[in-house]
Amino acid sequence: MTQETTAERTIRPFAAVLQEIGGGKTHDRLSEQLADLVEAVTSTGKKGTLTLQVTVAPIKAGNTSTLIVTGKTTCKAPEGDDAAPSSVFFPDAAGNLTRNDPNQPSLPLRGLESPGKASA
């Protein structure tokens, strides 16, 4: 990594700063989350995101000669179709959930009898 020099100032590469935030923990976390995200995307075929939020604030109000830099990472990996299974239920008068609609009458259904063995 090289530093970029403009007419007024020398700009340190962002990657170099990122490797120093939190003693390198932010960079390590991003690297791990990126690998996990790639794995999730390739296994599900769905998109995901990895976000880095960098916050820069004075260490004390009014003292801008010392800054605290915080890196927060957020990974939203796609989940498989079975990650949140659902079923249809109906509420009854008592507030219980049931699979059968209590407002619909039941039909008097009965099972079929097995046909007898054919004699040969």
From TrEMBL:
Residues 97-106 have a biased composition (Polar residues). Residues 77-120 are annotated as: Disordered. This is Uncharacterized protein.
